[in-house]
Amino acid sequence: MFKEPDRRRIYLMRHGEAAYVDPDGTVTDDPRNVGLTPLGQVQARKQSAVLASVPFDKAICSGLPRTRETAHLVLAQRPRPDLEAVPELEEIRGGGREYPVEDVSAWLAHVANPWAGADHPEATFLGGERFVDFANRVVPAFEAILADHSWRALLLVLHGAVNRMLFNYMMNLSWQARMSIEQDNCCINIIDVDAAEDGATERFLIRAVNLTGYDLNKSSIHLTNMEETARRIAETFPRSG
After folding, report:
1. pTM of this prediction?
2. CA 45, 159, 5: angle at the middle one, nearest 5?
3. Span 35-43, mean pLDDT?
4. E-strand spans in the chain?
5. How many Å is the Cα radius of gyration of the chain?
6. CB 186 within 8 A of CB 13
7. Between 236 and 127, where is the model more confident?
C-alpha cells in the first residue's frame, strides 16, 4: 500500500520593490528601515491574488519594514495567522556607501554583481558582512523553522540574498561566481518539505522558483535588482564631455 509522505509546503517570497534609491538617485542612509515603493505595494497585492487559495497556518518575516509590509499585503482580506519576525533572517549587511572616485565604473560593476567572488572564504557583501557569517546566522534560523511541526503551509517573506542562501542550503550548493538564483521583487518560490519518521527533514522538493504573477513571462524584467540599483546610482554622476 502506498504511504503518502509527511509533506509540508513553504511559500518563500522576496519583499516587493523597496525604496533604497530616491527618485533623484540618492541611496538611502538606512536600508534597514526602508518601506515599499508604490510599485512594490502593487506587486505584493498582485502576488496576494496568486496565493489567494492557499490556507496559510503560519507566517514569518525578517522583521524589517519591507518584509513586514509585503507580508501584511499578501495576507490581507483573509483569515490569517499572526505574523512572526525572525531577526536572524534579515538581509545580508553591506558596508559603507563610499566609492573609489578614481574607479567609479569598477565600483558600479561590483554593486551590479556583488555575488561575484562570494565563494571565497573572506568574501564580503559590498565590504560588509562576510558570506560565511551570513550563512552561520541564516541557516540555523531556517532549521529551527523546519523543526517546528506546528505548520503545514508557511508564508516566509524574506530578502534576495537570504533566499539565495536558503536555496544553496536546500540544494547543497555553495556560493558561485558564475551562477545565481535570481530573486525578482516580490517573487514566489514554492518548496515542499518531507519529514522522516523521526520528524527530521528528509528532503526538499523545489516546485517553483522566482514566480512573478505581475509579469509571468518576465517581459518587463531585464535587469537584476542590483543592476537596477547600480544604473540609478550611475545616473547621478556628472557626465563627461
Report:
1. 0.91
2. 85
3. 94
4. 6-14, 58-61, 83-85, 153-158, 188-195, 201-211
5. 19
6. yes
7. 127
